[in-house]
Amino acid sequence: MKKVSKNKGFTLIEILVVIGIIAILAGIVIVAINPARQFAQARNSQRLSNINTILNAVGQNMADNKGVWNCGSLYFSGSSASTTIGTGGSDLATCLVPTYIPSGIPQDPSSGTSVDTKYQISTTTTGIVMICAPLSSEPALGFPTPLCVMR
Question: Can you tell me the distance from the alpha carbon of 83 to that of 74, in angstroms, rounded to the nearest whole number?
């Protein structure tokens, strides 16, 4: 007669093999998702939204004043020069908040403050306004140049 074993279950080896397979699959998924890149893309999406908010507010101010910027100088001795937006650089808050941007001047999602928003604004002699986010060139994305929008 055969002896029937009443102990049903998995052996330690079987459990360790399954845990090993799950760990390998989890590692593959984490590498495929690349969380650093995902977070960098999310920050750049927020930066683009912030840049457009500031640019729209500047444009609305100029439209309300017949195409003239009446809140100080936005021309910085050539198209390549710029200044940082914030109370420490070019303080646009006194002109744009709360009329055009009720919530205040947007700040960079990684390290902006009210004194230094980390956004830069410049204009050309022809009146084209450009706002840039220098921190958008994050290593996780491989962008060599900052994110800029002109109007």
Answer: 9
* Residue 120: domain span: 13-150
* Total count of domains within the chain: 1
Q: Which long-range contacts (CB under 8 A, 24 or more apart) does 90-98 make?
A: 90/121, 92/54, 92/57, 92/58, 92/121, 95/61, 95/70, 95/71, 96/54, 96/57, 96/58, 96/61, 96/71
Residue 36 lies in a domain: yes
Burial class (CB in 10 A: 0-12, 13-18, 19+), 141: middle
pLDDT in tens, 74-117: 644 333 455 666 555 567 888 888 999 999 889 889 888 877 88
4, part of any domain: no
So what's the pLDDT on residue 145? 78
Supply the pTM of this predicted model: 0.75
